[in-house]
Amino acid sequence: MKVNLSFILLLILVNTSAYSSIVMTDDKLSIIVTPPADYNRKDTVHIVGNFNNWALSGNKSHQLRYVEGKLVADIPNNQQDIIFGFVRNSDWKSIPSRESGNALCLFLHQKNSTNHHIKIEIPAWKDDKPGKVATQTIVGNVKVLKDFAMPQLGRQTNISIYLPPSYKENNQQKYPVLYMLDGQNIFDDSTAYSDEWLVDESMERLASTGKLNEFIVVGIANGPRRWNEYNPWNYKSWDTQVEEIGEGDKTITFIRDSLKPFIDKNYRTKAENTSTGLAGSSLGGLMALYGAMEHSDVFGFIAAFSPSLAVENMAGNNVLFAALKNQKEMGRVKIYADMGKVEYGNYEKVEFLQQLLLESGVAEKNLKIVKDDLGRHCELDWSKRFPSAVGWLFKE
Fold this sequence. Notes:
Keywords: Signal. This protein is an alpha/beta fold. 21% of the residues lie in helices and 26% in strands.
């Protein structure tokens, strides 16, 4: 069964000290895990990663064994950068987290490391009741609109609006706007699924140094049907293998017809498409690219962080690549996209994306593809690439 990396958002500190009862050879890595204090020995824990195609069963699976209060496993050291995580009781929703419930990013073992023992501590599991309350981490001028109506999707959502430092100082100035999907993750640890993006911290820092033209950021929190609402095309479900209906067009229509008019009416914005952007990660990155393809009259610039490039339809065709091959005119849109090498094991998919975008009419000067050799599929790494991404997008 194929596993989409959108479901695997884990981070933990990797400490390369040895566990004395494990004897290793050069072709093996020893994983020693300190489980949560309330660990139940009846639970199963598997280590999954690019070294075993994320397998939870079969001859490639690796279940950790209990040894003197630790969970241990030996995995192949195949001289590649290894990205890996843990799954409890074969449930992809049961992954490592902080005690606050924030999921942790994937672990990374670099191929040039001389350490063959990796010691890890798992504070808690994502599907357990949090033992602590996550701290609110908003900085700067961020307003939160609770229960904003989404008539196109028949539900409500929270909208977070970051206003730059000069917004209060100059009441005549108008600003570009960047709309960001998965908005609950971008400003605040207390609402984030995993680590927050530190967008507000980055914006404040960049504004203080004068290295960035200021702009407004609007975060749109996702909902319980994220896979449907963040897929522009019908797709094959990764777990049930049945066709699901993509409702991404409704999400974009909400931004275009409901949210953007509200923001333009109530805040000092530059409303034209050359001053309006759409950004997202994973499935949100897929949606941002869809915005460039079908709504370049609304969104003049796009940021797709680790866009999901493995979503397929029932015929087994990549939904994005199939749509791009039929794309006749992209419009004058500026696109930033990035990818971590360890996400897919190589850069073939993002390089093919680059080729298709150029063939669809995107000007080479308006396309920036960033390859991060150690980039993982999580907010922690996207936050590191955010400042340079917006620096390029908002460069006049």
